[in-house]
């Protein structure tokens, strides 16, 4: 708190402008009816720049109360900027050379706060009393401070994000170094207590204003960000009753809070956009996934919507109070900056309201479409608002536009790169497992990385704006022995059928059904990627996968990578264990058939121990919060059959060809217990590095986080990666 007040004081000191003294002297003569031209007929600046009596009074005030530097700054501004703006020229400073301060104070009429607006005409310059000058100085410097402080506080928030990102980059670097070097224990403790665990251990995802509570470290950052904004919007105002611009404290506070909230809101906009785009280099630099940046994006949006709302309401109320009902109902709303600013605020409110997770999840594509449309209207509204009301702040809008354009160009560039000249993809629908496998031929330029994902676009869909993220489940290299049918590298995606794009694709495939409900055909599906933060776990001797449902696609990609490395004698992996919770046994069979059988050709022998615990959770809806369930072991075959006539686990052990040891359980796994006991069983062994890779629904990710942080208590070197499956 002390640091904060010191920073606030520094920001406030930095905003005492040298120009304030000159402005204060200038305004002291505003209401004095000198003989000759006066402000009511020619305007204040023409009057102040040309009426010799006014100019002498202003100059004398400056000479008596301002420092030489302040005098120079003010004279330069009046001579070079303000007077030329009205096509008039300020007389020379020498017009007060022939009178001393003492003479002026003695001979000229004195003006103070009470006599500041006399009615009689003045035929001489006036002497400004110190007390009156001070009131103007305070009025003026308060006014300037608000502008400067608003910017400084906004920079403080930009600095906060800079610090967060710096921390993220250093943390990522440390995680990388940790693979080859021993880092101080503090690093592990920091991850164990702050980075990995969720905020509340006992509950999975806790709805808070229709959102979810993110992990502890993320939550802390968000809390600091929200508090920083709230504090900086509402501190260091110096309202006083004699203020000469706004005649009541309430008016002053309204104007100043209105300005501050508007400025801070605008300065937040670049990060709002940066954190919301797919092609964000910071994802790669920090190792944080898109979901993390998306959380930040949402919280920035919520906070700045609140700021924009306060800004708008305050100005509307102020204008209503100042101008009266008739002005408010007629003239006020005709100003483009006013109504476009109001439109921008309304857009933000709708954007936030429609981004609640219940709506987002129910109709994701509609949400995305509305989100983009409202974002465009918001930017247009903001542009017109700022163009008239603070053009300097447009500098904070353009980076947002640039980030957006950059993202779009990269998206479509990458889509074109992968798609142009590529043969059609091949899609297969497997009825029992209710999964679609899409194999997309692509250029041979990347080495596919497990843990990454691509966006799939389909020409079958009329909704061309749609693109859906899918984890890379496997690949075939054109250069591998036997090559590929398409002569290109092929990326394999596996997906569960939901209600939108996936359901439409299933319909297309079902039209080509083979009689047993399965269907396959060539489809126009294109990919855009690569996205995600590929995590290489090969440095760990033990690999533990904790996956739920289709989250198994993350494991299949890693398994393929390990199999390749073992075949090339480049692997130091000694054990792979998979904990997989799924509803549909047929899905297990499908993965067994398409993925695990590959291992029959891998020369694992005694070198690598492969095991899997399969938890069949049945058809019941999976609740949001994990329940205490005692899983019942139902079968422990050495291997699992590749074909089964029904949806039930097999009752007899099949052939011994597969190196996998698989155990089946009924019910949901107690993930924390399973992971921790697994980790502890390693800690007595000599090879102490364990990688835990998780992917699945939110409730599962929650439990996996708790489990990882507990596993870190052992003396194992635990590394972890939680692949995103949702945002
Ligand atoms: C990084 C990532 C990797 C994924 N990998 C896989 C995978 O390998 N296999 C798999 O089966 N599923 C995966 N998913 C989930 C998959 O993206 C959605 O199930 C799919 O988009 C649903 O499409 P739909 O139109 O049929 O769904 P809908 O029935 O319209 O929606 C079903 C759910 O999917 C979400 N969703 C829909 N469209 C999108 C989108 N464009 N972006 C993010 N979420 C969306 C919705 O919020 C909703 O909760 C992944 C999701 C993410 C974020």
From TrEMBL:
User: Which Gene3D superfamilies does the protein's record reference?
Assistant: Nucleotide-binding domain of ferredoxin-NADP reductase (FNR) module
Q: Which UniProt keywords apply?
A: Electron transport, Glycoprotein, Ion transport, Membrane, Oxidoreductase, Signal, Transmembrane, Transmembrane helix, Transport
| Coarse class of the protein's main subcellular location | membrane
- Give the InterPro entries listed for this entry: FAD-bd_8 (IPR013112), FAD-bd_FR_type (IPR017927), Fe3_Rdtase_TM_dom (IPR013130), Fe_red_NAD-bd_6 (IPR013121), Ferric/Cupric_Reductase (IPR051410), FNR_nucleotide-bd (IPR039261)
Cross-referenced Pfam families, in alphabetical order? FAD_binding_8 (PF08022), Ferric_reduct (PF01794), NAD_binding_6 (PF08030)
What's an example of a GO molecular-function annotation for this chain? ferric-chelate reductase activity
Output the superkingdom of the source species: Eukaryota
Q: Which GO terms describe its biological process?
A: copper ion import; intracellular iron ion homeostasis; iron ion transport
Q: Which residues cross the membrane?
A: 153-174, 219-237, 257-278, 299-318, 338-359, 366-386
- Please report the stretch or stretches of sequence annotated as the FAD-binding FR-type domain: 402-537
Bilayer topology term? Multi-pass membrane protein
Keyword Glycoprotein in record:
yes
Compartments in which it is found:
Membrane
Name any GO cellular component annotation.
Answer: plasma membrane
- Keyword Disulfide bond appears in the UniProt entry: no
Secretion signal, residue range per the UniProt entry = 1-16
Family, similarity comment: Belongs to the ferric reductase (FRE) family.
Q: Which PANTHER family is this protein grouped with?
A: FERRIC REDUCTASE TRANSMEMBRANE COMPONENT 3-RELATED, FERRIC/CUPRIC REDUCTASE TRANSMEMBRANE COMPONENT
Q: What name is this protein filed under?
A: FAD-binding FR-type domain-containing protein
Q: Which organism is it from?
A: Penicilliopsis zonata CBS 506.65
Taxonomic lineage from the root = Eukaryota, Fungi, Dikarya, Ascomycota, Pezizomycotina
